[in-house]
Amino acid sequence: MLLYKYPIYIGVSHISIAQVADTSIFIHCKRGKKIRDMASECQGKSSWPELLGAQARVAVVTIETQNPYVDTQVVLEGTPVTKDFLCTRVRVWIDQTRIVTRVPVIG
Question: Could you give the domains of the chain?
Fold first, then answer.
């Protein structure tokens, strides 16, 4: 019985982990994938260049409306973040005035 399966992206490698029953874990790894290639494997829209310069609130609503498979994270420029890649995450980078400073993309 498959309990869960989910992808994990580390650098340029894609690792799928599936747990069967309570004890078995199977790992499958695809090597050599680039971030832009991994984004093409994600569901829904993956980039929002039209939101550059928009208010953070508008960007969050637009992204989550246009792609229901992602959650947004509003991040202040200069804040350290992890380098992992997730198909379910879009970071919205903002300045002190809550204006979007980078094109929001899946990752």
Answer: 1-33 (no CATH), 42-107 (3.30.10.10)
**Torsion angle of the four alpha carbons 54, 67, 39, 24, in this order, in degrees rounded to the nearest 10:** 130
User: What does the pLDDT look like over 21-70, one tens digit per residue?
Assistant: 444 333 333 434 444 445 568 999 999 999 999 999 999 999 999 999 99
Top pLDDT among 31 and 105 is at 105
Q: How far apart are CA 60 and CA 72, in angstroms?
A: 6
Rounded to the nearest 5 percent, the helix, strand and coil shares of the chain are 20, 40, 40
Question: E strands within the chain?
Answer: 2-10, 13-20, 24-30, 71-76, 89-94
